[in-house]
Amino acid sequence: MPIRHLAPTASGEDIAAVLATDGVAVVDRLVAPALMDRIRDELAPFMAATRTGPDEFSGHRTRRTGALIARSPSARELVAHPAVLGAVGKALGHATNFQLHLTQVIAIGPGEPMQTIHRDQWAFDFFPFPNGYEVQCNTIWAMTDFTAANGATRVIPGSNHFEDRLQFGESDTEPAEMEKGSVLFYTGSLYHGGGANRSDAVRYGVNITYNLAWLRQEENQYLAVPHDIARTLPVDLLRLMGYARGAYALGYVDDLRDPIEVLRPDLAKSGLGDLAAALDHVQQVHPVGAETKR
Ligand SMILES: O=C(O)CCC(=O)C(=O)O
Ligand SMILES: [Fe+2]
Fold it and tell me: Is the pTM of this model over 0.70?
């Protein structure tokens, strides 16, 4: 099954519709290549200081540089891109809220073999989530062109519906080839892996992932982004980073306070604060009184 490519005008709903069936979609040229160059420039000193991976899965010839919200103001545009948030909101809309899971440049160096084909949701201690219950929605933005030769992500379209814990070889997969500024979307249930880099140049991708807010985040945003920087960020971005309660009560601070108040006391509310939105959602999904009306 080929990887479906969508035009940059695709809506979040269009993208989510492809993800529901195939588990993967590429939106071509969603941002200008110049934005990707800016992000690369902002991150250059951090990438230069990053060591290669400590194990085979991380990649002995691969560098993973994180904390992009703190280190690259331009990367925040990718994290909060409206088409991405629209698609993720739809793909993960069965839960009360979602959050940022991790931000990471993945620089696959020449000579790196293909990564083991896996599901990203295995990060949750291999919990067997029910088929169709998506817990994670991911993006990889091309910061260089992605080609079969330089390590374009290998994916198995439709494998979001497969059994869990399967093993695959390269010939079972397809390369997500795309131009710089394009973005690969894939669900946490999709079998995929970083491609072998058989070229003589580094493949740079910006991996930004999102998960249900009742699960733990892979990258700890509270510690990765210094509070002096966090205080300057837009409230919507802070909420996405996890300065909000997950579902009804997860992550509150001391006397049931909204965690954002710790950074921004000016946002303190005496009422429910962010819980109001969570409760609205719960009311829509499980209307109170529905049991008795039946
Ligand atoms: O870099 C890539 O293309 C994919 C990497 C990946 O799937 C992972 O590290 O989980
Ligand atoms: Fe992965």
Answer: yes
Give the CA diameter of the chain.
67
Amino acid at 240: L
Is any ligand 1 atom within 6 A of the Cβ of residue 140?
A: yes
Q: φ and ψ at 93, to 5 degrees?
A: -70, -5
28 HSE (CA, 13 A, CB side) = 8
Ligand nearest to the CA of 53: 1
pLDDT tens across 5-17, in order?
999 999 999 999 9
Q: For atom 4 of ligand 1, which residue has the closest CA?
A: 194
- Strands laid side by side in the 174-175 sheet: 174-175, 154-155, 192-193
Mutate to test the pocket of ligand 1, among 105, 106, 150 (most ligand atoms within 8 A of CB): 106
CB distance 106 to ligand 1 below 6 Å: yes
Cβ–Cβ < 8 Å for 155, 192: yes
> Could you give the CA distance from residue 247 to residue 277 in angstroms, rounded to a whole number?
10
Alpha carbon nearest to ligand 1 atom 7, residue? 193
